[in-house]
Amino acid sequence: MNLIQVLESLRTDPETSGGIVHWETMAARPPRTKPFPEFIDRRLVAALNGRGISSLFSHQREALEKIQAGRNVVVVTPTASGKTLCYNLPVVNRILADPEARALYLFPTKALSADQVDELHGLVTDLGVDIKTYTFDGDTPQDARRAIRSAGHIVVTNPDMLHAGILPHHTKWIKLFENLRYVVIDEVHQYRGVFGSHLANLIRRLRRICHFYESDPQFICCSATIANPDELASKLIEAPVEKVDDNGAPSGEKHFILYNPPVINPELGLRKSAVNESVRLASRFIGQKIQTIVFGRYRMQVEIILTYLKEQFQKQYGRGIEIAGYRGGYLPNERRAIEQGVRSGQITGVVSTNALELGIDIGSLDVSIMCGYPGSIASVWQQSGRAGRKTGVSAAILVATSSALAQFLMEHPEYFFHSTPEAGIIDPDNLIIHSSHIKCAAFELPVWMGEKIGPEPADDLMRYFEERRIVRQAG
User: Fold this and answer.
1) Among 328, 317, 332, 323, which residue's Cα sits nearest to residue 305?
2) Do 108 and 190 contact (CB within 8 A), yes or no?
3) Which of 70, 77, 172, 304 is exposed most, by the fewest CB atoms within 10 A?
4) Parallel, antiparallel, or unpaired for β 254-259 and 20-26?
5) In whole angstroms, what is the distance from residue 347 CA to residue 459 CA?
6) Global confidence as pTM
7) What angle do CA 235, 241, 244 make, to 5 degrees?
């Protein structure tokens, strides 16, 4: 059976039809394209043509024009809409024009960093030019770090390494900071709450060091759909940001199903296990060789679902269908092998934590099943976006647990489909967070009387630190 036939069987089979509380069909959307702008280097256009990219989506063109005009931007479009080109094109284009130019890429996870470096290496190889792109993280060998500091055109890292490995040692990174033209912050929607507040202070320290080396980089941010992407990005970098959110990428028809497992104890409001129901639903698709991803809420749940699926298909098909798990704790080479297996189609089913919710390139699958509400509407759209090719039909199924929040969504599907995703909120001026970064800033460069690191001068905090002998006044 193909995907449409399996979906129809869910609707007609008494075992599953009773659990379907809402079925939303999203129409296919054609692409809206525009030609490459004149300011893009012809060598870069030729390399992209060789990769089958002969034009840009409308949002990519809009982002390029704003970046070329010197503005900070935040690109807000769904998963697999080509956000990567929105920053790779202007960065590579600038380095082609000015080989001394440098760029810094910030990703929230090491896996995402490695994935993006592979993408960049492919583009640079096709160009046939000497643009050195390096990952700089905790796994980077010491001898490689010296080469990266002296020769890296594009340094791909994460907030932890920027905080501990780059900013405190900025005197070893003089070439980067003197020539830094772009800072790319991907997955901006991840930087909310305490994590986002720390990143905002980290960016303050980064900009302070850039100012010391007389550079003023532009910021290119990318985000999934949230209520306030431009406000969040602007707070993170403390500068005006222009939003690009008119998605021109195509999408195929999508079926979104809210599935509520049957009640087994009406008095306690208990329902059948979401894990068992997710396994049952996933089996229908995987058994027909339809590529499927199942998202679990935590590692143990992922391992349980994976074990159930493997046991079931081992009995039925022997070694004919490959199913893999994906979560933190796997070795990097194991994760890369799984990503490649999913991309190539060798792996039919993958069970993952939200590690694959981010923009790691695993291609486009046919079905996404979420075992339990992931905690936010934004996360649901991210996980469901893992299913869906540019053409063709895809499906996403949210399997509810017995929790009150999940049951509210089952009873009020309009809240989910027609309300705005959550806002990303940060408080960079929280005293505990801000003061800890002021200490770091003082280690990196002397803090002068009256100097602002944030909205207000840091004088009072510096006096407090001096009284406690954390810092000392020189001169």
Assistant:
1) 323
2) yes
3) 70
4) antiparallel
5) 58
6) 0.93
7) 125
CA dist 172 and 150 (Å) reads 8
pLDDT in tens, 50-108: 999 999 999 999 999 999 999 999 999 988 889 999 999 999 999 999 999 999 999 99
- Which two tokens mark 11? 């609707």
33 C-beta neighbours (distance < 10 Å), count: 15
Which residue type occupies 302?
V
Q: How many residues make up the chain in this entry? A: 475
Task: Give the pair of three-digit tokens for residue 48.
Answer: 């992209």
CA distance 198 to 453: 14
Among candidates 263, 325, 258, 270, which has minimal Cα distance to 298? 325
Please name the residues in contact with 185: beta carbons below 8 A apart, sequence gap of 6 or more: 106, 191, 199, 219, 220, 221, 222, 233, 236, 237
Q: CA-CA distance, 279 to 302, in Å (whole number)?
A: 11
User: Up-side HSE of residue 71: CA atoms within 13 Å toward CB?
Assistant: 17
**Contact call for residues 272 and 83 (beta carbons, < 8 A):** no
Q: How far apart are CA 262 and CA 259, in angstroms?
A: 9
320: confidence class by pLDDT, cuts 50, 70, 90: low
Q: State how far the Cα of 446 lies from the Cα of 433, in Å rounded to an integer.
A: 19
Distance CA 408, CA 195 (A): 29
Q: What is the 3-state secondary structure (H, E, C) of the chain?
A: CCHHHHHHHHHHCHHHHCCEEEEEEECCECCCEECCCCCCCHHHHHHHHHCCCCCEEHHHHHHHHHHHCCCCEEEECCCCCCHHHHHHHHHHHHHHHCCCCEEEEECCCHHHHHHHHHHHHHHHHHHCCCCCEEECCCCCCHHHHHHHHHHCCEEEECHHHHHHHHHHHHHHCHHHHHCEEEEEECCHHHCCHHHHHHHHHHHHHHHHHHHHCCCCCEEEEEECCCCCHHHHHHHHHCCCCEEECCCCCCECCEEEEEECCCEEECCCCEECCHHHHHHHHHHHHHCCCCCEEEECCCHHHHHHHHHHHHHHHHHHHCCCCCEEEECECECHHHHHHHHHHHHHCCCCEEEECHHHCCCCCCCCECEEEEECCCCCHHHHHHHHCCECCCCCCEEEEEECCCCHHHHHHHHCHHHHHHCCCCCCCCCCCCHHHHHHHHHHHHHHCCCCCCCECCCCECHHHHHHHHHCCCCCCCC
The type of residue at 112 is L
The encoded tokens of residue 28 equal 């296919």
182 φ, ψ to 5°? -135, 140
The structure tokens listed for 130 are: 């000497």
Work out the end-to-end distance of the chain between its first and last CA atoms, rounded to an integer number of angstroms.
79
